[in-house]
Amino acid sequence: MSNLDVRILGTGIVSRTLALALARRGLRVALQARSAAVPSQPDLRAYALNPASVALLTDLKVWDALPADARTEVHDMRVAGDAPGAQLALSAWQQAVPALAWIVDAAALEATLDAASRFAPNVELQEEPAPAPLTVVAEGKASAAREQLGVRFERHAYGHSALAARLVSDRPHAGVAHQWFRSPDVLALLPFDRPEVGHSFGLVWSQPEEQARNWLTAEPEALEAVLNAMTGGAAGTLRLASDRAVWPLALGHASDVCGPGWVLVGDAAHVVHPLAGQGLNLGLADVMALTDVLASRESWRSTGDHDLLKRYARRRRAATWAMARTTDGLWQLFAQNPPGLRELRNAGLSLVEHLPPLKRWLVGRALDV
Q1: Per its UniProt record, what Pfam families does this chain match (predicted)?
Q2: Among 115, 226, 233, 252, whose Cα sits 20 to 30 Å from the Cα of 316?
Q3: Can you give the residue range of the structural domain that contains 287?
């Protein structure tokens, strides 16, 4: 493809979504990604998408192309602290929205985006560098291109890892997500329809690294026993139905997100704790903002114009900063246990539960990042 407007580096959800979004607005895009290695084990990632992200994927004709069992609506969320009575219940009905979130199978979403990008007009798939006025770095948190640009990535390791697996319950999930904030761990069960429609959950258990590694190799019966004890039957009797995976957790952000002829999006620009399920939503919000900035530029501006890219940076700065501070603050509040903090955080959960306007405001922030 000659006379490219943008080249995008990366193989993931954010890079492919951006390619489709830019092409839909008439820009000529090269998606530069080396062939991905065959994974050594099944992809256990499950993402929580907010209405804005789902609307974007729907507009790109991707959402409706997903297999029916690869996306599950969350109608209610039940959050518990580590003291009796410290509970918070959230519902789509109270927010007057169709769903609080949609849980989507990461592998299925990537496969659908890959198929769409292969047949999209104005998108060329390349393995070798292609000259373009703008290079978008969407390679993820370990981006080599970001490092070559000389951009610092300021990373704070939590000393925790996330343990992921798929579970099956003897009871229907009914579209209810569960989360337990305990010290020092956070346990989340995301309603899912794989491997068993209506009865599955995606497990995301944030815990100290050594503990997570132990559970990675523990006997399935031992893991099932501890999960059933921790959840107290709130999600039914749980059974392990997949392999397990572990990855380290950190808070991070790039020292700069743009420069003359380049820009960072998604995890290449910012990484947050997964306890609020907002990491991919932040990346897809980057896609929407950058697409709008590039498509609405003055006719005389190049897509790589630094002043133009600064508009994107300004548009995303407040939202990404706020989400990073929110997720980090929640982790600091619930993962540590100095004197008096336990009572304070549990009282806070109860307070939000009994103040519906505050509850609606907090949920509204998560529905649109």
Answers
A1: FAD_binding_3 (PF01494)
A2: 115
A3: 6-155+249-367
Q: Is the pLDDT of residue 199 over 50?
A: yes
Better-scored residue on pLDDT, 39 or 314: 314
pLDDT bracket for residue 181 (50, 70, 90): confident
Percent of the chain with pLDDT over 70: 85
**Phi and psi angles of residue 75, each rounded to the nearest 5 degrees, phi first:** -95, -30
CA distance 314 to 257: 10
Q: What are the E-state strand segments in the chain?
A: 6-9, 29-32, 46-49, 71-74, 76-80, 87-91, 101-105, 123-126, 134-137, 153-169, 176-181, 186-192, 200-208, 238-240, 245-254, 258-259, 262-264, 270-271
- Angle CA 50–55–57, to nearest 5: 100
Q: Is the pLDDT of residue 113 over 70?
A: yes
Asked, for residue 129, whether it belongs to a domain, the answer is: yes
- The percentage of the chain sitting over the pLDDT mark of 90, rounded to a whole number, equals 69
Residue 204 lies in a domain: no
182 within a domain of the structure (yes/no): no
Structural domain count, the chain: 1
φ, ψ at 287 (rounded to 5°): -55, -50
For residues 303 and 294, the answer to whether their CB atoms sit within 8 Å is yes
Q: What is the pLDDT of residue 323?
A: 85
Q: What is the DSSP letter of 50?
A: -
Quote the pTM value. Answer: 0.90
Contact present, 163 and 274 (Cβ < 8 Å): no
